[in-house]
Specification:
8 helices; 43% helix; 230 residues
Length: 230
């Protein structure tokens, strides 16, 4: 089974890298929809072009230090996070010193920064993201978030936004290629597997657990396609 339906997004990934310009891309969607996978594709293409890629991850756990994702990004980039983030995040003047120091440390032509789950980021980290997005002219920042998105609403002014909602699942047999399902959410996908693929598996496996010792995905698809063609 082959996952398709991300051609537009993958083309955008390639175009961002080919342009060799910076900016902020916000990739939104619910859990499991493919945000991390698209980020990995971006990283893979960038590395293949000889670009430097660094990652940062926001966490839901309480007690994470201020600027937590940027601490990871700076460390991955070889910049000392303790030096760059030395000022107090709660004091506005000190916060701007951190922003400027971070921009200086990360101002590298062709750098790709990926920050995941920015809906969990602390306010100081979101403000830093907005600052870096406007200051780093040759650095591409790709940030993922979940819907709904109140925590990242202000960032939309600085960003290209890409939403992952629909996923298409297809199969390929010989020279035939056919899309067999399209859904708009994880709940829709769960219902598809439960109500549509479940009965197909039951037919292929037979009424008893010992009815089929091994079943390939292609056998399931061959059973599914004729009944749902058209």
């Amino acid at each position: 089974m082959k996952v398709v339906g991300r051609g537009r997004e993958l083309a955008l990934v390639r175009s961002w890298l080919a342009a060799e310009t910076g900016g902020l891309v916000l990739c939104g969607g619910e859990p499991g929809i493919g945000k991390t996978r698209l980020a990995q594709e971006l990283a893979g293409h960038a590395l293949a072009l000889g670009r430097e890629v660094v990652w940062g991850h926001c966490v839901e756990t309480e007690g994470a230090p201020a600027f937590w994702p940027w601490r990871q990004v700076l460390k991955a980039a070889g910049a000392g996070p303790d030096d760059v983030l030395a000022h107090d995040a709660d004091v506005p003047q000190d916060r701007f010193r951190v922003f400027d120091a971070s921009a200086t440390a990360l101002d590298r032509d062709g750098l790709v920064i990926i920050v995941e789950d920015v809906h969990w980021a602390d306010q100081a980290s979101l403000l830093a993201l907005a600052h870096l997005a406007t200051q780093l002219r040759t650095v591409l920042i790709f940030a993922t978030f979940r819907d709904p998105r109140p925590a990242v609403a202000d960032l939309m002014r600085f960003a290209v936004r890409i939403d992952l909602h629909a996923a298409r699942y297809a199969c390929q047999t010989d020279e035939e290629f056919r899309v067999i399902a399209v859904w708009q959410s994880k709940e829709h996908a769960d219902r598809f597997f439960r109500e549509v693929l479940g009965p197909v598996l039951a037919r292929v496996l037979g009424p008893e657990p010992a009815g089929a010792h091994s079943v390939t995905g292609m056998e399931v698809l061959r059973e599914f396609i004729p009944a749902n063609a058209g």
